[in-house]
Amino acid sequence: MLSTLHTNDAPSTVNRLLNMGIEPFLVASSVNCILAQRLARKVCEDCKERDPEVVAEALVEAGLGAEEAREVTPVKGRGCKTCSDTGYKGRVAVYEVMELKEELKEFVLNGASATELKREAMRLGMTTLRRSSLNKVKEGITTLSEVFRVSAADR
Ligand SMILES: [Zn+2]
User: Fold this and answer.
1) Residue 138 belongs to some domain of the structure
2) Do the beta carbons of residue 94 and residue 146 sit within 8 Å?
3) CA of residue 59 to ligand 1 center, whole Å
4) Residues pairing with 49 in the sheet
């Protein structure tokens, strides 16, 4: 069965289910995978240009590694007829997929917080919403301000 909930990210979905009165053992045994999705605005292709105001330090602060941040060319839309001077045209989905592996099920059973769940999921290799949206900055698809709008910092 597939179901939809409105939460900020994948890990907090577990807390939402628990707050709805569902027993931890039921969540642990019946939830297989949680996918969180947000839509980020895409920079307009017709007026895309380099954004000198976004420096590497800002990208690192947002969560990129120092080395990869240096290789990024941040872009923005200057504004044109195509994008009605907004600098954006269209949207791109960013995802966070949290598979409830055995380790995470244990965390759920032990009453872990959303933060603890997220940390463990990251340790197990989850690509977070923040990381997923930063990847779109690396690819020149969206902006750092969109990253801040659609995702929270990874801690
Ligand atoms: Zn444009």
Assistant:
1) yes
2) no
3) 23
4) 76
Domains: count for the chain: 1
Pairs from 18-23 (Cβ < 8 Å, separation ≥ 24): none
Mean pLDDT of 127-139: 97
pLDDT in tens, 3-42: 888 888 999 999 999 999 999 999 999 999 999 999 999 9
**Residue 56 belongs to some domain of the structure:** yes
Does a structural domain hold residue 26?
A: yes
Let me know if residue 104 belongs to a domain: yes
Query: 145: CA distance to ligand 1 center in Å?
Result: 17
Q: Are 130 and 63 in contact (CB under 8 A)?
A: yes
Give the CATH number of the domain where residue 57 resides: 3.40.50.300
Q: Tell me what pLDDT residue 8 has.
A: 87
Give the distance (Å) from ligand 1 centre to CA of residue 51: 14
Mean pLDDT of all residues in 134-145 = 97
Please give the residue range of the domain that contains residue 37.
11-150
Cα separations in angstroms, 45 against 49, 82, 89, 117, 140: 9, 9, 8, 38, 10
pTM as predicted: 0.90
